[in-house]
Amino acid sequence: MMINLLRHAQGLLKKRIKYRPLVFAYIIICLTSIGITINWTKETTLQNLHVNAMDSLNVYDKYLTDKMRNYIVQAEILAGNQMVIEFCKHPTDAAVMNEYLSRFNDSVGGAVAYIMNTDGRTVSSSNYKSPQSFIGKNYNFREYFQSAVKGQPDRYIAIGTTSKAPGYYSAYPVINGKTIVGVVVIKYDLNVFEPEIDQINGILLLVDENDVVFLSNDNSYRFHTVKQLSDEVIQKIKVAKQYGTEPLPPIPIIKTTKKDNLIILTIRKRDAIKNKDVDAEYLFESAHSDKDDWHIHLLVGLSEVNSIILRNCLYVFLAMTVVFLIGVIMFMQSLNIMRRNRHEIEIKKINEALENKVKERTIELKDYNLQLQNEITERKAAEDAVKAAIVEREKLFNELQLSEQKYRQLVELSSEGIWSLDKNAITTFVNPAMAQMLGFTVEEMLGKPLFDFMDEAAIERTKVNVDFVHNGTTKKVENTHIHKDGRTIHVFVSAVPAMDQNGDIQGSFAVVTDITKRKEADEALKISFLEKKLLLRELHHRVKNNLQLIAALIGLQLKHVTDETYREMFIESQNRVHSISLIHEKLYNSENLAEIDFNNYISTLASDIITSLSADTSTINLKLDIVKNVTVGVDIATPCGLIINELLTNALKHAFKDGRYDCEISISLRVFEDKFVLTISDNGNGIAKDLDIGKTKSVGLQIVSVLVRQLRGTIEFDRTNGTKVTIIFRKSEDVIS
Asked: CB under 8 Å, gap of 24 or more: what pairs does 66-72 form?
């Protein structure tokens, strides 16, 4: 029956798409009901779990409280035993006390009972026969001892440092009158806490006062902390060796939610089957002991809550569905009756509307006929206008053809090559001059790529230039083409982008000029220049050799001259010839055959003169301060070289006659705008104060005076601290020859 109802409702809904709001209303009601069901079920289930969990905790708490109370009483009884008090005062008969403690420990069900003196050292123990006997061990670091020795009984949970087994310690001070003479301790195994654990639904966590889990029915939680411990608490536990070497990590609580006084924890655990971390929700309940030295927590899994919610939601959904389907069927039946009545009324209205529509359409047809006659008249007028436009267009077309014919004749008769390319560098047009330039016919060049008429090197250059032009840039470059007979043709190309009527670039248009003959003339000119350069270099070389030959002949003649006056004259002449020869040697070795490096020339010349005229060059300190990267021609280098030769010779002959060892000669050359400033100075005896260079009889100074005039320069003498000669001359004016 339910299936039939569903099918019937489905058919009705398919036929009645316009009732979708009804479906949406049903969905909203279902979702609202399910939401209310979820909240109510969750709250009810959580409250039931809370009540059950608290009942279990209270039962277990009462069980543990009774146990703990008995343990304190047993330790108090042992501490009040007169035999124990006497032993603590005088620990002499340990064997008797050990046996007594053994029987007492068995009677109370402890793990071990032992007595410590006030220093914390164990003096008697019930496990005296065990290899792990406590006798002689000092446990003064334990908190239970530190409290009991101060007169305060204490309970303590820890891992034994000797037995390595966890236990519950009950400590009580042994008092003689008002004096504490020792401490008795009874250690109980933690299995005394376990009888009731298996009966509890959930994960039971027994924690100490620091929230460290020391017992649980799920071993994965043992020696974990419910909260993150502070560094101070961790250090305190380590010092007391309460849990040995256990790391005490916190339980991985991802999220804590509080709702209606209930605490829900989200804990991440490792799923051994799926081998991945999973998050689970637990209801967190707690119970505290009366002295707050240990607590009980219970984690109740909430997976059952989700199952109950899902079941209740399913029940509500099924009930709402049945109610909805019954309502839909009843609603559809009433709609059918209403729809039948409405259709009859609508049919009458439609008939009346059709009659009115026929009348209106008849009137409209009359209007359409009138409009059509008007349109025919307008169409005839438009056709006449079109005919006139066609005549005007034919006239313009004829004028365009005439203009194009003139342009084509101009291009074809041009002596310059005309070359047109599309976007892919394919030839779309060449004039006869262009085809003749490369030895082809126009037909042979059309449709071929530009690069078919080039060698590899030209292709690489041209590809870049073509890209530039096709991107809208005008280019003027030199290039090469291959003639049909294999010759290389040098051309000058002016290329511009070719655009259509919309301004879009469709290719390129170039004017090509044959510059092969000009290139050949340039090559011939370069060869002629190189030949003249070689001839000029050879001329400088021969002049240098001839001058060196003259200097050598003077040197040979000098060997036969004994008169010192004549010898000096020969040496001076030889140095003059050498200064000129050195210029031609520098020109011969220079890339620029018209000019020499003035810095290098002056440095070499000065060193050669000092070497030729001074027997001991070590006594002369030559200082050069010559501006670098200055080149001069022969017309300036020759007179300057001779001037330096004469002035250096004069300084070496006359300035240092007293045999001094601090001889210093300086040569400086500076450039100021269009002037050279040449300075030659020494720290010798100094030239005569009444010397007039224009009237002197010294051949050397006469030569200097003539050469300065030749340079169109001026000369000045400074006789302070030796002799300083400054010569200023222009570098841009012609020198007197």
From this structure: 67/192, 67/193, 68/155, 68/289, 71/155, 71/168, 71/170, 71/186, 71/188, 72/153, 72/155, 72/170, 72/172
